[in-house]
């Protein structure tokens, strides 16, 4: 039996998926979680073979949950998402995610992906993979990306400057350059755009 943990903050989707996967003879759903933090703690406790993680959950997202799980136990992780952005795929793969599937796929397909990754293989939805290959590269410098990372949770210019050992004026210059390159009005918009594209 392949032991599966499911994490999705949408109750109806999580319950429906658990019910459908439980009909498969070789799959056993050992836990259903509503957020990323719970998924990590339950995975460490139950040590499932495969964790099926929704990308967008409250607190930590599916990619971060997968990274934390993979650091501690040998569970395989599959991320499912409604918005399959190519940048997120790159971030997921670099975090050690084993599968990446859009929520539009039928439950039978998801079961097949679970079997694939449980057998030690990786699975990336072909459409997402094709989009990722043609997706744009970051126009931002490494230092500009550092500034976005350091301010991703709304930290002040002074906080960012202190954490990166820069002056506040230098950080402001980097922020101005970032906004100009991306054609955006605020640092928050830039951080969201960079995260969605998998740059940070």
TrEMBL record:
Residues 133-198 form the HTH luxR-type domain. Pfam families: GerE, Response_reg. InterPro entries: CheY-like_superfamily, Sig_transdc_resp-reg_C-effctor, Sig_transdc_resp-reg_receiver, Tscrpt_reg_LuxR_C, WalR-like. Gene3D superfamilies: 3.40.50.2300. SMART domains: HTH_LUXR, REC. CDD domains: LuxR_C_like (cd06170). It comes from the Bacteria. The modification 4-aspartylphosphate is found at residue 54. Residues 3-118 form the Response regulatory domain. The keyword Lyase does not apply. Keywords: DNA-binding, Phosphoprotein. The keyword Phosphoprotein applies. PANTHER family: TRANSCRIPTIONAL REGULATORY PROTEIN DESR (PTHR43214:SF42), TWO-COMPONENT RESPONSE REGULATOR (PTHR43214). This is Response regulator transcription factor. It comes from Microbacterium aquilitoris.
